[in-house]
Amino acid sequence: MNERWIPAAIGGLGGAALALAIVFGASMAGLLPGAVDARIKSYLMAHPDLVVTMMNKVQAQQVDSEQHERQAAVDKVGTARFFDTSVAYVTGPATAKNTFVEFFDYNCIHCRNTFPVVQKFYEAHKNDTRFAFIDYPIFGQESMNAARAAVAARRQGNLYIALHFALMGTVDSAVTVDTIEADAKMSGIDVAKLSADVLDPNIDKTLAAAHKLAGDALITGTPAFIINGKVHEGEISDAEIKKLLKS
Question: 79-246 in CATH: which number?
Answer without folding.
Answer: 3.40.30.10
